[in-house]
């Protein structure tokens, strides 16, 4: 089976490496607009060959678009145009509503399955890819009733081969949940990093004091702006609402601190400690 | 040498365990107002014996106060009253300005050295303690000119034995820096956890989607309110200013997203990526 991967970064590369570990029979055809990434993916044996997009898609049984969501929007319809009749197309975009909307009227819509692996690190590019990224993580499949059953079955069987857990939801619910649980985390982390960088001109101070929890809270501020800026644009309505709630919560917390209302801030923290129990399956430490 | 540790939690316990690993000759006397913690610390061999505060302090060459900062304020002067003439007192509080102020006029002020180890986890209690917490971390020593040279030398030699890196600063600078690099991280994390818990009534959703960076950003929201509520009160002025800057930055970010100004949000993130280089010594991944 030929699998074409467009975008040989963290997600695309980890998908290929993870699948190779399970099954040697796949042939991976890589496509990347950055020739350095394409060469590096060959060197790292992420893919078996590199081809131009047009040649790769017509040769593949499954094409995976693992590029930033702005590139996805531009690419989805032209790639569907090229897609052979028996083939399936998926994308790994972190937004789903707009992506599903732009392909809505395409005659080959049913050959497309909109998915999103809930996995990532703050690193990017082929060197960031590793076989263990996707196994045991959630793969969300959106609006599966708009895809033909053979295509859904194919991708389900591949994700199961990768030992992923499948979850199904409408594209609009996906974007709403992700705004809170993923996109907001990235914004809070970037804003924290920016605030500290502006205040602490002496980098030595940041480095020395970062032991106190700063480095984990700010980890996501190392993430790629190329990936995240278009996500924030495409999911702006949900993210804006999430940010309003977050800013209101911070303001509420600040009022407690300003008023030295220790009982109230204690209560807010005690209630939020609940997150430990909820996350214990993920991060038991 | 007898070392009395008041508060057998994460920091007090890790200090004893770390030091024991370097040097078997210390005798650790434990004090804890919670008898379960005291017993557990004996079981875990964190301390060699448990005594009431009054008996422990008079027997010790060095007394370490490793309790929440509200308990510290209440305890500092009475413990200094008890302190033998040749002995030294230190505290591990996360705030330093008020702590130094309350002992300012005490006749034994010079026997007290105000320190703060820049290390911690989101866990608390004797079971959270481990020998590796303090080695290679920063120990900040505040207002050391107000302590007698023998006491400063004693604690410096112990911290070096623990392989800690020493840093010196005035108590007010300490509180200002920590507001940004530590206290703000905790508040942003608690506020994020509270926002998501309010929005996502279905815990399954949080658990399933937390892969996307949420768990590291929210890790500090598992921290102990008993420890943090009084820190926020004692450092409220600096924290309030830090929170104002943070909320302004979030609002600025939100405006970019609302206006779909991708170039501006890209630029903000690109600049903040600088944090990767600064933290690379701490968290090279």
From TrEMBL, chains A, B:
Enzyme's top EC category: oxidoreductase
Domain of life: Bacteria
EC number, as in UniProt: 1.3.1.12
Keyword check for Oxidoreductase: yes
PROSITE patterns: PDH_ADH (PS51176)
Swiss-Prot/TrEMBL keywords: Oxidoreductase
Listed GO MF terms: NAD+ binding; prephenate dehydrogenase (NAD+) activity; prephenate dehydrogenase (NADP+) activity
Domain (Prephenate/arogenate dehydrogenase): residue spans on this chain: 1-285
Gene Ontology annotations of biological process type: tyrosine biosynthetic process
NCBIfam families for the chain: PRK08507.1
PANTHER family: PREPHENATE DEHYDROGENASE (PTHR21363), PREPHENATE DEHYDROGENASE [NADP(+)] (PTHR21363:SF0)
Protein name, entry field: Prephenate dehydrogenase
């Amino acid at each position: 089976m030929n699998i074409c991967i467009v975008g040989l970064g963290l997600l695309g590369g980890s998908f290929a490496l993870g699948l190779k570990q399970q099954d040697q029979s796949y042939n991976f055809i890589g496509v990347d607009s950055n020739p350095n990434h394409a060469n590096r993916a060959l060197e790292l044996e992420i893919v078996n060959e590199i081809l131009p997009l047009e040649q790769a898609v017509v040769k593949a049984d499954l094409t995976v678009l693992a590029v930033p969501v702005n590139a996805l929007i531009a690419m989805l319809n032209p790639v569907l145009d090229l897609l052979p009749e028996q083939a399936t197309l998926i994308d790994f975009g972190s937004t789903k509503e707009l992506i599903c909307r732009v392909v809505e009227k395409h005659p080959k819509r049913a050959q497309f399955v909109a998915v999103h692996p809930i996995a990532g690190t703050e690193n990017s590019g082929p060197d960031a890819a590793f076989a263990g990224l996707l196994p045991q993580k959630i793969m969300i499949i959106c609006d599966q009733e708009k895809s033909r059953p053979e295509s859904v079955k194919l991708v389900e069987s591949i994700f199961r081969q990768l030992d992923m857990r499948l979850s199904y939801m409408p594209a609009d619910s996906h974007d709403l949940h992700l705004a809170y649980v993923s996109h907001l985390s990235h914004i809070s982390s970037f804003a924290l990093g920016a605030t500290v960088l502006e205040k602490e001109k002496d980098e030595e101070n940041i480095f020395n004091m970062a032991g106190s929890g700063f480095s984990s809270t700010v980890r996501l501020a190392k993430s790629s702006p190329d990936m995240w800026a278009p996500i924030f644009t495409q999911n702006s309505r949900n993210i804006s609402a999430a940010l309003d709630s977050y800013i209101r919560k911070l303001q509420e917390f600040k009022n407690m601190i300003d008023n030295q209302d220790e009982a109230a801030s204690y209560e807010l923290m005690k209630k939020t400690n609940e997150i430990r129990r909820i996350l214990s399956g993920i991060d038991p430490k």
